[in-house]
Every structure is written in structure tokens, then in C-alpha cells.
Amino acid sequence: MAVSSQLPHELSSVMGECNKAQPFRTYKVCQEIQLDNTQPQGEYRVGIKFNDQHIPDSPYKLFISPAMGDAHKLEVFQFPSAGVQADKPAAFLVRKNGAKGELDAKIVSPSGTEDDCFIQTIDSDTYSVRFMPRENGIHNIHVKFNGVHIPGSPYRIKVGKEDADPAAVHAHGNGLGEVKTGQKTDFLVDTCSAGAGTLAVTIDGPSKVSMDCTEVEEGYKVRYTPLVPGDYFISIKYNGYHIVGSPFKVTCTGEDLAERGAQETSSVVVETVQKVAKSKQVGPVLPLFKSDASKVTSKGMGLKKAYLQKQNMFTVHAGDAGNNILYVGVYGPKSPCEEVFIKHMGRNNYQVNYVVRDRGEYIVIVKWGDDHIPGSPFKVEV
Q: Which of the chain's termini has less CB crowding within 10 Å, N or C?
């Protein structure tokens, strides 16, 4: 077993313990880390290999930060929890609580773009931190005091409209099953009815992959080409949240076409637009009617002459015309009729009443489904 790291260290011992009752050996690694002010803080990697092969999840990420100092004294308040929009400023306050030092802050977008926040002193103990996000999705705001993250930093904030629904996003395609090295494969991310948002696709595996994302009618098609066999994990997030089934485990077979290394990550981020599939009807689906409007009959004084401020009536008989929906409209010389009442009397027989307010010539339209009944439209004098 071999252990390596990027840290300045003294590897004091690697010890193994064998349990006769179990067919495995346990190792204990002791590592002493010595840092000084010249050693940069940040992310480091520690690799553990067995027979020159990385064990699962190796290399591990290790974060080194300087001493807390007074950073733990600071607190954030009036942080915007909702309603933050892209290209519009927002702000929150930071209270020092007597700490001495310098405050700095930056905002990191879903695509990885960093932008500095504007910091203004309100009084001797309070700062105002102003920022302006440039895209929709989950952002991270890093707030540091004397180079050290304050409690809770980085802060996550959702930017954009709340109508995006990650639960409505689905992914499918050959690229989420078994794949082969050197062969381009793809999968579709269906964002129909999910609203506009930020689509982030990340592929972790034994090698980097060439990846691109293109817009299609149903959503977005992601294409990639694996170069090294092994297990790849595909994470698909919408507005910072995993979609159904994410992360997907994809097994790749074939020959090594590139150098096998540590766990590698490839990613792509896309600002999506709202999509509705043409093949999917939105709203309720009407039944398939079988009817014949020519067999509908109508009678009544209300189809010939009407009187002001009175109930004018006629009847419609569609008992022999099949099943459908009766539509009645009354339009006057100045505007539509104010009141039209349709009452079903049974067996597709209807009574229609309407009231008019102005004198003149009116048009009464009666339809059985999409078709006019015989005599429609009717001219009525008031």
C-alpha cells in the first residue's frame, strides 16, 4: 500500500493489523502536517494506492484553512432568502461583534464565474455586502474575515424565478446505460413543463470526457465520449437540485484510449428556456364526439324577435344528433348580449334564455360542437 499527498508532511508510520477471523487487513496511517504562514491554504489531495491502483474514492480532497482568529465572531443578518433576480442588485448585513480585521466577499455563479461583492461600512460594527448575480440558479457567496470563512460561509442563494421545477425534468438515452470507449454517445434531458432554469451536467470517472450540450425540441441533448473503461457517475441538476434518478451510474467497457489517472470531472452548464413539447397536449383532453349538427332542430320566438329588458327564449332539440357540446352566442349592434342562459332539459334538449339592453339587429349563433345548426346564424330584431 502506498500513500501520497500534496501536503508538507512527515509520514511517521503505516501500520497493518491482521485479523485471523476475517480475510482482510486493516491499515492505520499516521501523518503529521506542519503548516506555516508561507504555505498556501486551499484544497489538497491525498492519494491511497493498493498495488499501484487507487482505492475507491482516492485521491481524497483535504481542505486546509488558516486559524479562525476573530472570524467566528461575525454574523450575517437580513440575508435574502427568496426573490433574488439576475442582473438586479441585492444586499445583506454583516455584524463584526467587536472583531478587528478586513472583510471580503465574492459570489460564485452556477457556471463557476466569480464576481466581487461591494462592501460598504454602515457603522463601526456593521458592514453592508451588495452583490449582483448575472445568471439564474444556485449561487454561493463566500464571506471571509482576514482571509478566513466566517460561520456559515459559503452561503447558498437561489437566483431566478421560483417556477422552475426540477421534479418535472427527466433524462433518458443510450448514454445513461452501457457505453464503450471511443464511441460518442448521448442522452436527452427533457425539460418540457419544468420552466426555465439552470441545467448543470457533471460526469465523474476514471478520465475526462469530451462533452457538449445542444438544444432540441424536447429539451437538451448531452453528448460525450469516454476514453477509459470503468464506472462513470453522471449528475444532472436543475437549478441546483438533482433530477429524478441522478446521479446515474454508467459502466464503460473497451480498451484504454487515454491515460488512466485519478478521478476526473467534466461538466457543462446551460441556461435553459421554457419548453412545451408539441407532442404533448396541455390541459384537459376533449372526448371524441360523434354527432351530426344537421339533425339539430330549434324553435321559439327568441330566434325571430326579442324585447328589451325581458327574457327571450327558444329551444334546441339535439336528441337525434348524437353527443356534443351546445354553444350559443348573441351579438348586438353595439356589443355582445349581457346575459345568455342555457339549461339542459334532458335527452339533449335545451332551453335558451337571453336578455338584451339595446335596440337594433342582433345575431344569434347556435352550434352543435364545431358546426352551425340549420338556420344559424339567426337574425333577430329588437
A: N
